[in-house]
Design goal:
Radius of gyration of chain B: 16 Å
Shape of chain B: elongated
Strand order of the largest sheet of chain B: 4-3-2-1-5
Distance between the termini of chain B: 22 Å
Number of domains of chain A: 1
Protein name (chain A): LSM complex subunit LSm2
Keywords (chain A): mRNA processing, mRNA splicing, Nucleus, Ribonucleoprotein, RNA-binding, Spliceosome
Number of strands of chain A: 5
Helix content of chain B: 10-25%
Strand content of chain B: over 45%
Oligomer: heterodimer
Strand order of the largest sheet of chain A: 4-3-2-1-5
Number of strands of chain B: 5
Order of helices and strands of chain A: HEEEEEH
Number of helices of chain B: 2
Structural class of chain B: mainly beta
Helix content of chain A: 25-40%
Subcellular location (chain A): Nucleus
CATH topology of chain A: SH3 type barrels
CATH architecture of chain B: Roll
Number of helices of chain A: 2
Structural class of chain A: alpha+beta
Radius of gyration of chain A: 15 Å
Family (chain A): Belongs to the snRNP Sm proteins family.
Largest sheet of chain B: 5 strands, antiparallel
Function (chain A): Component of LSm protein complexes, which are involved in RNA processing and may function in a chaperone-like manner.
């Protein structure tokens, strides 16, 4: 739930999703669900020469399980808040 | 370890809690390693890290099928989410 909430705070921001097949897609995060499936708008592919079949795609829905990384701007993330939320989640899970 | 600290550690992930806000070393599937500051994690070992250096360890093979000496490709990312299913191990970063 923690990471799901974290991604919800990133909606409408530009992120780069790197998939397990090395395809990197940059776009605006429109929505995310509990499986960390991701909907991206206005996408561009990092290496279009290697992935020409992606050129016509404007927006996409990415299955959470194929994601390796999500890169984002550090200024959009409150790291102290994240650490506190993580500690709280661990504590709640033990009850 | 003193008694109070031992009481708080009852499962393996409790050791990861001690690394929150600290530099950690992560080994991932696909011959990748990361070092960075850990800010969040959950039971799936999904991670949020900042100031990350990613190293991809590559062994090229000659046309004759002989392996060349391993090389490392490095990359820096300021804020990174790592999906837990790629994670092999988490360790405090060695100096």
């Amino acid at each position: 739930m923690l990471i799901f909430s974290f991604f919800k705070t990133l909606t409408d921001q530009v992120i780069t999703v790197e998939l397990k097949n090395d395809l990197s897609i940059t776009g605006t995060l429109k929505s995310v669900d509990q499986f960390l499936n991701i909907r991206l708008d206005g996408i561009s592919v990092e290496d279009p020469e290697r992935h020409p079949h992606m050129m016509a795609v404007r927006n996409c829905f990415i299955r959470g399980s194929v994601v390796r990384y999500v890169r984002m701007a550090a200024k959009n993330v409150d790291t102290t808040l994240l650490e506190d939320a993580t500690r709280r989640e661990i504590k709640d899970a033990k009850k | 370890m003193d008694h109070a600290a031992a009481a708080q550690i009852s499962e393996p992930l409790d050791l990861v809690k001690l690394a929150l806000g600290e530099r950690v070393f992560i080994k991932l599937r696909g011959d990748r390693t990361l070092t960075g500051t850990l800010h969040a994690y959950d039971a799936h070992m999904n991670l949020v890290m900042s100031q990350v250096e990613e190293s991809v360890h590559i062994v090229d093979v000659t046309d004759a099928g002989q392996p060349l000496p391993p090389r490392v490709e490095r990359r820096n990312v300021e804020m990174l989410f790592v999906r837990g299913d790629s994670v092999i191990l988490i360790s405090p970063a060695q100096q």
